[in-house]
Write a structure and sequence with these properties.
The protein folds into two domains: about 270 residues, Alkaline Phosphatase, subunit A, CATH 3.40.720.10; about 110 residues, Gyrase A, domain 2. The protein has 15 helices and 18 strands. Helix 1 runs parallel beside helix 5. The chain has about 400 residues and is α/β, with parallel strands linked by helices. The protein is globular, with a radius of gyration of 21 Å. The strands form five sheets. The chain has a seven-stranded mixed beta sheet with strand order 2-18-9-1-8-6-7, with helices on both faces.
């Protein structure tokens, strides 16, 4: 598909409008389904992308999927129109629900929506070990060493279904050195060769070296870059540091395409989610809502933009009304089971523990609003840029395609 054939999801002009994941052919899960078909893998449970010419993808000798953590489509259009990335933009996709790394990256690495892979946010309640855990670093929320150090096997909490093991060709997982040997990466890389990098330029150098390899066999590389997400959390998505980082990324992408010219490579770029900023006056601390906090039987889970509430049985009947009264219309309060039944996490049979992992009620925060609580010993980390909600800025991600 060339630039003149771009396909974009119809999205209202109002940036506050809600957007559902398009699991029928326009989301990240469908991107992985298309890649599987293009790389000779098996058909995955979800249909391929409506906007992709898989036959053309099959012709490439080397296929790269570069995931830029936090690069929302609207941010790209606001800050980098006319750049190298934007010049190869071919379509808009939706993230998954919730629009966060733990859910979306796991979808890209397994070909399953959260409905099946069961990872539902940065913090999750794992009933099997009776603890609230951050699944990516596999650490309990109260702190301490990674869970494997305590004897908890990662595969007992995370679904092991790496797409790389289904591809009949060599595969590479190119990750920051800080996570290349993490339990999450090891589990989801499967048989793929894991390659660690330090700086962004090193990541692009590794991608180029693999593409320029003289071997005749086809290959696939998955690369992940987290720095844009980290900067947006600290400074805000529309800040100068994020703008400068995006400029450097865009220039490096243009240099990559030049350096691998003539290698018969296909470079795809997407993101796990976009961002919105949350000003101080829209940040809710649950400590300031004692009546609401008193109804909960454990800390909030999920995200600051989308929180799962585990309610005391005796408070179940009154919780939604009390939450609406105390939060003053800053959130939509829904029964989590209804979100599952309505297909927000994906269609089909849910993960056997999905209901346990999304609590009794879900708070979907209105634009710009966040909610958080703290547990003893937890650092109060202020996040300016946030994600996890269902606004178009958070949900829409680019699909960029370039051949070299």
């Amino acid at each position: 598909m060339n630039v003149t054939e771009r396909l974009f999801l119809p999205v209202p002009d109002n940036r506050a409008d809600e957007l559902r994941p398009d699991y029928g052919g326009g989301s990240l899960v469908n991107l992985t389904a298309s890649l599987s078909l293009a790389l000779g893998g098996e058909a995955l449970p979800y249909p391929p992308l409506r906007v992709a010419d898989v036959c053309a993808w099959k012709q490439a000798r080397h296929v790269v999927l570069l995931v830029i953590d936090g690069l929302g489509l609207r941010h790209l259009e606001r800050e980098a129109a006319g750049g190298h990335l934007h010049g190869h933009l071919v379509a808009s996709l939706t993230s998954v629900f919730p629009s966060t790394t733990a859910s979306a990256v796991t979808t890209l690495l397994t070909g399953l929506a959260p409905q099946q892979h069961g990872l539902t946010g940065w913090h999750m309640y794992f009933r099997e070990i009776g603890a609230v855990v951050a699944p990516l670093p596999l650490r309990a929320r109260y702190g301490g060493p990674p869970l494997p150090c305590s004897g908890v096997a990662p595969e007992s909490l995370l679904l092991r279904a790496p797409i790389f093991d289904r591809f009949p060709l060599p595969a590479h997982v190119i990750s920051p050195a800080s996570i290349a040997d993490s339990e999450f990466t090891i589990l989801h890389a499967g048989r793929a060769r894991r390659i660690a990098y330090g700086r962004m330029d090193e990541m692009f150098r590794i991608i180029a070296e693999v593409a320029r390899s003289p071997r005749a066999a086809r290959s696939f590389s998955y690369a992940y870059w987290p720095d844009l997400d980290a900067a947006a959390h600290v400074h805000g998505v529309d800040s100068k540091p994020v703008r400068e980082l995006l400029f450097r990324l865009d220039e490096a992408f243009g240099c990559l395409l030049k350096s691998i010219g003539g290698t018969d490579s296909l470079v795809l770029v997407t993101a796990d989610h976009g961002f919105v900023d949350s000003p101080p006056e829209r940040r809710i601390d649950l400590a300031n809502c004692p009546e609401l906090s008193g109804m909960l039987r454990m800390p909030l889970c999920g995200e600051r933009r989308l929180a799962y509430c585990y309610v005391k049985p005796e408070c179940f009947g009154e919780f939604a009304q009390a939450a609406d009264a105390q939060l003053g219309g800053t959130a939509t309060i829904l029964r989590s089971a209804d979100l599952i039944d309505d297909g927000w996490f994906g269609p089909g049979t849910p993960h056997p523990r999905l209901h346990e992992r999304v609590g009794d009620f879900t708070l979907i925060m209105k634009p710009g609003w966040t909610i958080r609580d703290t547990v003893p010993g937890e650092r109060n980390f202020v996040q300016v840029g946030v994600h996890g909600g269902i606004t178009a800025d958070e949900m829409m991600v680019p699909l960029i395609s370039a051949t070299a």
